[in-house]
Amino acid sequence: MADLYLKNLESERKALWATCRLKGLAKDTPERQRIAAIDEQIAAHKAKKAG
Length: 51
Fold this sequence. Notes:
By secondary structure, the chain is mostly helical. Helices cover 80% and strands 0% of the residues. It has two helices and no strands. The longest helix is centred in the last third of the chain and has 21 residues, at 30-50. The chain is elongated.
């Protein structure tokens, strides 16, 4: 069964990353901070899933 939570997080991350690349945003922008938060959520979810 597909992990919809993980797919949603990864989709949001890809969209934000594309926006950051297009605009050339620095690391301290809210978009880049959100990407870092999403990375943490993805890692925590994968760790929980792995057991």
